[in-house]
Amino acid sequence: MTPKALPYLLLLPATVFLLVFFVYPFIQIALLAVTGPEGFTLQHVQTMASHWKFNTALGWTILLAAVVVPIQLVMALSMASIVTRLQTGRSAILYIFSIPLGLSDLAAGIVWLAIFEQSGFLNSMLYGLGVVEQPILFLGYQNIWVIFLAVVLAEIWRATAIVMVILVSGMGLIPKEYYEAGEVFGASAWQRFIKITLPMLRPSLQSALILRTLAAFEVFAVVTALGGTTLPVLMGETFQWQFTLQDRNVASAYALVILAISIAATLFFLRVLRVPKGATL
Amino acid sequence: MTATVENNTPKAVETARSAGRFLFIAAVVLICAWVLVPIYLLMVNTLSSPQEVTGFPKTGIPSFDFSSIQFFISFAGVAKALWNSVLVAVLTMILSIGIGAPAGYALSRFDFPGKEAFRMLVVMTRAFPLPLLALPLAVLFIRSGLDDTAIGLAIVHTVLAIPFAVLITFSLFSGIPLELEEAAWTLGCNRWQAFQKVVLPLVLPGIAASAVFAFTISWNEVFAAAVLTIENRTLPAFLVQNLNVSPLHLKFAGGAAMVIPALIFIFAVRKYLFAMWGIANR
Amino acid sequence: MKNTTKWLTGAALSLTLAVPANAQVLFWSTQAAPIEETQKMRENVLAGFEGGVDFQPQEVGPFITRLEAELEAGSGQIGLVGALHGDLSTYADSWADLSGLDLSGITVSDAFLELGKLGTSEQKYLPWMQANYVMAANKQALEYLPEGADINALTYDQLVDWAQAMAEGTGSPKFGFPAGPQGLKHRFFQGFLLPSYAGSTVTKFASAEAEAGWTMFQELWQYTNPASTNYAFMQEPLLTGDVWVAFDHIARLADAFNQQPDNFVAFPAPAGPMGRGFMPVLAGIAIPEGAPDMDASMRLAQFMMQPETQVATLLATNFYPTTDAALPTDLPASAQALGPAITAMTSAPDALPALLPVGLGDLGGQFNQVYTDTFERIILGGQPIRAVLDEQAGTLRSLMEQANAPCWLPDAASEGPCPVD
């Protein structure tokens, strides 16, 4: 086995697998977006782009990701740092922190709806404390920013654990000697975090950010549960065209938009958090 | 880990440290509450009678009415669906790590033409909505006999889990200095032995973590499961996919029915998840 | 390698689980999806079928995907499809002809049988069960009823006054409307609002009369609970008390009556200047051409039409028989309350029945979307009514021409595609 062939050999199973079970169906679907009865056409893309909901759906999707992902990053970093500093109860705390891993977005939507709905837990609490005389309607269609906030909270609650676990496993690989050296030179905890943890964590940060951002672009179930169609998102529109309107061509065009912004975000993270080959000591 | 080690520090520093310690504990408690309170509320509604679920104001204390949860447990075929779910999830775990980890290693250790293209391919699988892919996949599976098998569904779930497996193992391998491996080579190990003896023990906990991802992705996936399994339904396809149109109290019970096994699973594998901390102190 | 052995064991396990031959008939349905209804369909309705039935209700996404995959692959497991008229008409070419089925001794509504032909000469589907939309009110709401109004002969103007009185009397809007993503709002516009005001669903879509209808609805919306855009099943906000008066599909109101029979009343949909428009719901059963066991599928279709099955289906789903099956006297509270409301509506002197869309094929979803978009733009978006109606009329016109669908009731019959004035 020549060293040159080794990487390709290692990639072979994954490549073959993805070619058969992803690329093959993907091409069939992607072609739908740009073909019509007479061959190539941009008509479906135009139908999508000129639909009155397209711009708002694109805008909300990007805004949601832009708000949710940075907050999650900060929270996940804090949570991971907390776990590394814990002396006692570490495994119990880490278990609690990682509980949302096991939750589907469907369950998350149900739970947060139970909190925010008119006869829900939040109103029950406010009412019980005498803050309000009758339940407030939080998720009404006029309060689009409240719906947005509720979706942000639910997404942060549901999906921060994923980022955290990736970062925790990355932090575990940073040699302890680095921190000891930092202490010897009188670096404060904050300085050690900035100068040692963050740079050493770059590979994990990159993976976590890419995976989380892509998932954020596909947000759907939680948004539907909390906001109905008031807060349109790209994935919701894709479903709408595919299954309700049964226009697979336009649905496919929407899916390609999701793909395009995902690729753009991925390239961004790959450039910003460039990881050198086999990090050196 | 320094705050409590030394005890001959000056007073002022000590008060500052105890204030910091207090803030630290407060943060831990706050985050735990943030994670647990919604789960608690889900359980409250699950263990309440239908009237209480729709009633107002809510007390936030369960009345331990088991009728909703009992409805699900008594559903014919739940046990088989649970078994199918576990089977598919385990197969997904094995497939995605078996296929993804070598790719992650290659990405972290070698520069080669086509690297970026491969990375993009992996990312694309995560960026394209699965419900659209389900139709051509279902046609393919019906024609090839993979339809309605655990392995068939596991393959689809593996497509979803592979980006996690590849990217996480990539970042793990990248975090291990190449010099460690090189040192082993100079000591007479070949590439495989060096990997096995030096790298593998270090990354195993991380790999376990990405296996947990694969498991939970498969566990919670509803759409492909509903399309691609008939006889061998998984639990979400069996119970959860019609929750949207079911009465409120059953929505909660169904949600809980899905969450509880997942929590038990995470609890069961926590020592692998947490073993990564053994490494930090190496 | 450890992994390989694991993989092999796993693969072996999965192979033992893969049982290809399915003796039961797979009943693939969009109906009876709420989980309690599913349970009742399996235990009370289908358990009596010899050979067994695997009843699998689905959400629309998986339903369509699996069905299309089987149709495309030319083989599969689905033995019987149960869905609404609109869903079934999408795949008219793929259904086996059921006209040879022996239904002796059973009288099926002729109008429904005609709909089941989907504009062809074959019986593409059999009318399986029917339902309707009515209004439901919390009894507390009755004290706000405007003077002189009779809930069994309500007009839309009186409904607006009523909703206003409730909003002002209680301090919060108490009228509710299923405008959520899973709500059936489009049916209200197609079958109730427009027929009542314009006497038409399609042709007079953008008429001055239709404009008056939307103006009324805009006014009503001021006294409508804004959470309505999240509602799918009005029984839930009725039970929580967030809503006191609501319009919805009977199956989506039933739980309120079953849980608290003494607190609610059911009554007909209101009337407009042209009459009391209403539109039935029709679900049908069809058999794909490639069904694995055509004989068993046919037997199951026949079984579904038997009087006992039809009554059991009513008890399980709150959908009424399409046949002359005699109803028992000890019906559940929901059927006791909702049945008379439907009768009062369909037999009212000003009754104005609207039929389900015919001949739209797979454009049915986009047809519904015209009405939903009109609603979202006028009511939620606050756009000017005239401009929105003119623009949406253009979309509607091109849909009708694309489908080449002639008019259906209450629109007057047309030569060629139904015109949109």
CATH domain fold name of the domain at 65-233 in chain A: MetI-like fold
The H/E string of chain A reads: HEEHHHHHHHHHHHH
Radius of gyration computed on alpha carbons of chain A: 23 Å
Quaternary organisation: heterotrimer
CATH architecture of the largest domain in chain C: 3-Layer(aba) Sandwich
What is the highest CATH level, the class of the largest domain in chain C?
A: Alpha Beta
Strand-residue proportion of chain A:
under 5%
Helical fraction of chain A equals: over 70%
CATH superfamily annotation of the largest domain in chain C: Periplasmic binding protein-like II
Rounded to the nearest angstrom, the radius of gyration of chain C is 23 Å
Shape of chain A: flat
Class by alpha and beta content of chain C:
alpha/beta
Which strand order does the major sheet of chain C show?
2-1-3-10-4-11
CATH T-level fold name of the largest domain in chain C: D-Maltodextrin-Binding Protein, domain 2
* Secondary-structure element order of chain C, N to C: HEHEHEHHEEHEHHHEHEEEHHEHEHH
Mean pLDDT of chain A: 89
Biggest sheet character of chain A: 2 strands, antiparallel
Shape of chain C: globular
Mean pLDDT of chain C: 89
The N- to C-terminal Cα distance of chain C equals 73 Å
Give the count of helical stretches of chain A. Answer: 13
Describe this structure in words.
The complex is a heterotrimer of chains A (281), B (282) and C (421). Chain A has 281 residues and is mainly α. Chain A has a domain at 65-233: MetI-like (MetI-like fold), CATH 1.10.3720.10. Chain A contains 13 helices and two strands. Chain A has a two-stranded antiparallel ribbon with strand order 1-2. With 282 residues, chain B is an all-alpha fold. Chain B folds into two domains: 11-68; 77-245, MetI-like fold, CATH 1.10.3720. In chain B, 76% of the residues lie in helices and 0% in strands. Chain B has helices at residues 11-46, 50-54, 67-73, 78-109, 115-127, 130-144, 150-174, 178-186, 191-220, 223-228, 235-239, 248-268, 270-280. In chain B, helix 1 crosses helix 12 (248-268). Chain C is an alpha/beta fold. Chain C folds into two domains: 2-130 and 281-328, D-Maltodextrin-Binding Protein, domain 2 (3-Layer(aba) Sandwich), CATH 3.40.190.10; 133-279 and 350-403, Periplasmic binding protein-like II (D-Maltodextrin-Binding Protein, domain 2, 3-Layer(aba) Sandwich), CATH 3.40.190.10. Helices cover 43% and strands 13% of the residues of chain C. Chain C has 15 helices and twelve strands. In chain C, the strands form three sheets. Chain C has a six-stranded mixed β-sheet, sandwiched between helices. In chain C, strands 6-7-5-8 form a four-stranded mixed β-sheet. A two-stranded parallel sheet of chain C has the order 9-12. In chain C, helix 2 (35-45) links the parallel strand 1 (25-29) and strand 2. Chain C is globular. The chains are: A mainly alpha (281), B mainly alpha (282), C alpha/beta (421).
